[in-house]
Design goal:
- By secondary structure, this protein is an alpha+beta fold.
- The chain is built from four helices and ten strands, in the order βββαβαβββββαβα.
- Helix 2 packs parallel to helix 3 (132-144).
Length: 192
């Protein structure tokens, strides 16, 4: 089973996270309802098992919680993939969500990079600051070693745009981590 359990504790957050690339239980508690919804959508549409408990300094705002979860999820993904032998490596997906369309292309390259182009028409979705989506994606990309491109193609509703991006990420990642018939690392260098 390609899986990982990560615990991270700082003065701002306490996080326990378990990720299984082959599926499993999904139970997510971040203290931010909309973010729970996005992470649950990510797990469902990626076919991942994901359990998470986070206690964050939400009295300040959601920034530390969202960014630190991106860090921990990225670390778990990197650990679960190990040497990345036999994975497809690349993935991409378009996902429509009502009037919005989200796009994701990624490479499990070991070279972290984020390109994020998704203007948000509204600043908040419930208690979630929509500007935190880029912070989560950056933390995820850096800690997982992903080259990650995300684009909100269009949309009028920040909820729909954000959800389309999380679902596109999930579907692209599912493609990229899928095991192929070969056990080789898909790189001319021989490592990722």
């Amino acid at each position: 089973m390609r899986s990982a359990e990560i615990t991270r504790e700082t003065r701002e957050t306490k996080i326990r996270l378990s990720l299984c690339l082959e599926g499993g239980a999904r139970e997510i508690h971040t203290g931010i309802g909309f973010f729970d919804h996005m992470l649950h959508s990510f797990a469902v549409h990626g076919g991942f098992g994901l359990t998470m408990q986070c206690e964050g300094d939400l009295v300040v705002d959601g920034h530390h919680t969202v960014e630190d979860i991106g860090i921990v999820l990225g670390q778990a993904l990197a650990h679960a993939l190990g040497e990345k032998r036999g994975i497809a490596r690349f993935g991409s997906a378009y996902v429509p969500m009502d009037e919005a369309l989200g796009f994701c292309a990624l490479d499990c390259s070991g070279r972290p990079f984020l390109v994020f182009d998704a203007p948000m028409p509204q600043p908040m979705c419930g208690q979630y600051d929509t500007c935190l989506t880029v912070e989560f994606m950056r933390a995820l990309a850096v800690n997982a070693g992903l080259t990650l491109h995300l684009k909100g193609m269009y949309g009028d509703n920040a909820h729909h745009i954000t959800e389309a991006l999380f679902k596109a990420l999930a579907r692209a990642l599912r493609q990229a981590v899928t095991l192929t018939a070969s056990d080789e690392v898909l790189s001319t260098k021989g490592i990722l």
